[in-house]
Amino acid sequence: xxxxxxxxxxxxxxxxxxxxxxxxxxxxxxxxxxxxxxxxxxxxxxxxxxxxxxxxxxxxxxxxxxxxxxxxxxxxxxxxxxxxxxxxxxxxxxxxxxxxxxxxxxxxxxxxxxxxxxxxxxxxxxxxxxxxxxxxxxxxxxxxxxxxxxxxxxxxxxxxxxxxxxxxxxxxxxxxxxxxxxxxxxxxxxxxxxxxxxxxxxxxxxxxxxxxxxxxxxxxxx
Length: 222
What we know:
The protein is of the alpha+beta class. About 15% of the residues lie in helices and about 45% in strands. It has helices at about 10-35, 210-215, and strands at about 40-45, 50-55, 65-75, 85-95, 100-105, 110, 115, 125, 130-145, 150, 160, 170-175, 175-185, 190-200, 205, 220.
């Protein structure tokens, strides 16, 4: 008579059970940590609350203010564990040329963006919550008292909100199409890269709905 198949032999099941118990004893903490890891998603909608119109004090003046548009990334934790010391590192800025190709902005200084309100480069995010990270801002060419509806100014710039603003102007971008690569990392998660499309028209719209829809479309594409 042919022998019993291996799966019908009790000793084999004992060996399998011992191996599974050993694997669980060695790796269960790592597997549990991986399962409950932070899961970060970056997005932006060019409207409230991600983007806002506000005012900034003009230099060397305490009475007059400039209008300002702020653009902020929404960073959300969909995981089951707090993401510790999250940072958003602006790694690379590229300018899209007329033929569609991309060219590195050589003067761009790679460094962290700042978290909104707290103005720090790192921020923890609890499970199910989100935080805003300042991407950049545009300061209007006129004071609040000036009544203009739309204005094109070749000197108008979108300033990326880096943790340090160097003396050179590599963090200020003129009208055009750009791709910004950012790396999102934390002490308890692997870093991930995202690409953000920026299309800055160079126009200033006093009406914020027009500014958000026409002045600077922004989207996370990868």
